[in-house]
Design a protein that fits this description.
With 91 residues, this protein is α+β, with helices and mostly antiparallel strands. Helix content is 46%, strand content 25%. The chain starts with a strand and ends with a helix.
């Protein structure tokens, strides 16, 4: 399952996140610091979404209230919720 998440308060504009059974399969981040965000995307691939959220949630960028990693944690939370809803509907 893939979701598109529009970021807020950061340089990147959108995150496309693919989950399979709670595991991050692919992350594409549009805009922002390309090299750093590409690195973050590769680091979380194969990781349980809950573990990635725990590591990135609450990270701030400078004096901003959020960061791209924090926004990715928000996207992953939404993806997990959507995945759970779809699983329940299938039962």
């Amino acid at each position: 399952m893939t979701i598109q998440y529009k970021t807020r308060g950061v340089c990147s504009q959108q995150m496309n996140v693919k989950l399979e059974e709670g595991v991050v399969k692919d992350v594409e981040i549009l805009g922002g610091c390309h090299g750093n965000l590409q690195g973050i995307a590769r680091l979380v691939e194969g990781m349980k979404a809950e573990d990635a959220i725990a590591r990135m949630e609450g990270i701030r960028c400078g004096n901003k209230q959020t960061s791209c990693p924090d926004q990715l944690s928000k996207a992953l939370k939404i993806a997990l919720t959507e995945e759970s809803k779809r699983r329940q509907q299938a039962e």
